[in-house]
Amino acid sequence: MLAQLKRLGGDSLLYALMNVGTKLIAFLMLPIFTTYLGKEQMGVLENTDAFTSMLTFLVIFGTDSALAFYFFDTDKKELKISYVQTVLQFRLAISLLCLIGAIIGGEWVSVLVTGKSGYAFVVIAAMVTLVLESIITLVLTYYRYEFKVKKVVIYTVLRLGGAALFAYIFLKMWMEEVDVIYYGRNIAAGVIVVLLLPELFRLVRIKVDKQKLWAILKYAAPLVPASLAFWVIATSNRFFLTYFEGLGSAGIYGVAVKFATVITLLTSSVQMAWRPYTMSIKERPDAEKIFSKFSIIILVGGILGLLGIATFIPYIFKFMISDPEFYSASHYIALLSAGTFLNFYYLIISVGLFIKKETKYISVYFIAAAVISLVLNLVLIPLMSLWGAALAVVISYLFACIMIFRKSQQVYYIPLPVGKMVFLFTTGMIAMGTLVWVHIIELPVYYLTFPWLFFAATFGVSRVLKEIKS
């Protein structure tokens, strides 16, 4: 067990360092974006990114999970490479179709995405980014599955750091428009593609292996509705906000979401290491026990992270953002972070569905969660504005987590103290909500200690540490 912890921990640490670097880059850029763009332009950026993320799910089409399965299902190097080549061909084809569609119908798509014409070049530039990142992501996924963690970290930081640098230069010295952010992203991504050319020459293949492509798509297809449902839950509320309240509200919400990604400093590093790690140990006799301990550890770590965000983010926000028109965004960050954590945690508690190739249930439950999200957005946003959008995210993800966990336990049982975990999560959310309330009504700072003491007491009562040590 100790050796397995060291292996996952070592990979996770490097990924954590990468994610810390990339998130810090994003945080450094956020004050610049809010200074140069204002609420409406931020709304354009948020809506365009949301639209692009939906297309990203179509480009990936669940092939990340399929590639993980088939990659670790064989010991033959040439067969592993062949699967990577097949996935690259598929993703390139879909992303190029998206780019062609944007070139042909740019103005129409502009109105669809932002509610206004005049942003066709933004849409086209975003589709160029989609093509370039489709290439980069696949190569880095291959490196990740080969446990070449350092290469993943270096190329990721270079790409995001370059995109930030170019965007800043263009905004400051060229024009204060959202277009230049995508120009910066494309230049940075283009440089990385050039650096990856030796690997791409090895991976790019003209002839399509139809048998492997069919096998990959057969495994991946059940995950596609889940991916689209995820997009509905995570990003469609921006379009509801734009419709009900305008681009300004979408811009404020988008700023809150970007701050909410702080929780991914705890989650994304583990997420990147989790899939190849679980697939590589799935045949071990003690695999179920290992999965159980990690599930508990990750839940506790996530709750502590959420409490930390609720406590400190308002101070960090006002330090970083100088424009008062964005200050209200700080109210929603902790709740949105809870949604981000739940979206990550379903991957941890659904490991059995991936091992047993029962991934179709993930799609079923996420489709149901997406329907719930749409209904909640329609009802809650007119009543509660941005609070309604944030609540819709959390409730939808919580429903998906509960249903996916139940089914995963049925097909691949993991011995977990479910009652204790539910108790911890509930008390953690109560403590988090209280911290947010203290900030909103501006109570004295020492009031922030009471929610922490409450959670510490409930944590001790749960005796969950005993489960980890056993």
UniProtKB/TrEMBL annotation:
One Pfam short name: Polysacc_synt
Organism, scientific name: Fictibacillus phosphorivorans
Subcellular location: Cell membrane
Sequence intervals crossing the membrane: 12-38, 50-72, 92-113, 119-140, 152-171, 183-201, 213-233, 253-274, 294-317, 329-355, 362-380, 386-405, 417-440, 446-465
PANTHER family to which the protein is assigned, alphabetical: O-ANTIGEN TRANSPORTER-RELATED (PTHR30250:SF11), PST FAMILY PREDICTED COLANIC ACID TRANSPORTER (PTHR30250)
This protein's name: Uncharacterized protein
Membrane topology according to the record: Multi-pass membrane protein
Origin: domain of life: Bacteria
InterPro entries linked: Poly_Biosynth_Transport, Polysacc_synth
Keyword set, alphabetical order: Cell membrane, Membrane, Transmembrane, Transmembrane helix
Principal subcellular localization: membrane
Gene Ontology CC annotations of this record: plasma membrane
Lineage: Bacteria, Bacillati, Bacillota, Bacilli, Bacillales
